[in-house]
Amino acid sequence: MNKKTNSNTRATSPNILVTGAAGFIGSHLCQRLLARGDSVIGLDNLNDYYDVTLKENRLKQLTDKDNFTFIKCDLADRGAMEKLFADDKFDVVVNLAAQAGVRYSLTNPHAYIDANLVGFMNILEGCRHQQVGHLVYASSSSVYGANTNMPFSVHDNIDHPVSLYAASKKANELMAHTYAHLYGLPCTGLRFFTVYGPWGRPDMALFLFTRAILAGEPVDVFNHGRMRRDFTYIDDIVEGVVRVIDQPARPNPEWSGDNPDPGTSAAPYRVYNIGNNNPVELMHLIETLEKALGRVAVKNFMPIQPGDVPATWADVDALSNDVGFRPATSIEDGVGSFVEWYKGYYS
Asked: Which of 107, 295, 325, 333 registers the highest number of CB atoms within 10 A of its CB?
């Protein structure tokens, strides 16, 4: 476990652990927390699921800050995680580290058990024994699985996942609720909807499309273009996460086991969607990207892939009611910002 310590502010500001700190959402969140004066310990195992250099370059924007400490560690390493929680007292833990990707879960299922289940178990145990004030963790819009009633609501039942990735994220929500119930650990799960923007993940559609269009290669358009996604800009995601961090989950006094609400509990437990509440057709995304790049894509229309769902759409009323925020960045503005970053980063 490699540790760089250079913090003089922990006595006067919240001490926050962010796992997945070299990831897309994690690195953006760390920047935001550091900018407001929080003391942040960032953890990541820097695995090679995608370009490690991209992860290292995200980290370079953080490691020169006095109130940031980086630890290279794997969530599934029980001994290392126990030492981490023993060495530091965290006010808040934000768990963004996970094995991501629906399609990857079809061919590498064990990676999801190790990172998303064993790793999350280690997070829960650390929070429990060190009496962490609030655990915020990444869930996913994928948990809605076979649901077709739109928009997806946190009050809906989510018992029919269609990928192991989705099942692992639902399992995280169930595990978190158990710890909230047994130990009074405030837990808030965040179901992210198709996050995009500068420093994004290379395995995501916008990144893949941009690279292919600039190289003059065809883009794979699944479900023959009849896909709809609630694309959510990274700044909106981070704003939602920060607001949730500052409002630990509380019991719902009106919760009843006779008619159980999946989104709340009699325990200090909450689940929120963070999405743009405005699904976009895949073909419209491609058209917007073509305009931003000044090039036309060569399209390779294909059937829907196993594990994929045809549409996502977030009901964000719970988020808006509880923390006063609704994502609103347009796809045109978001794609424009991504393209500007992409051209600069890859010259």
From this structure: 325
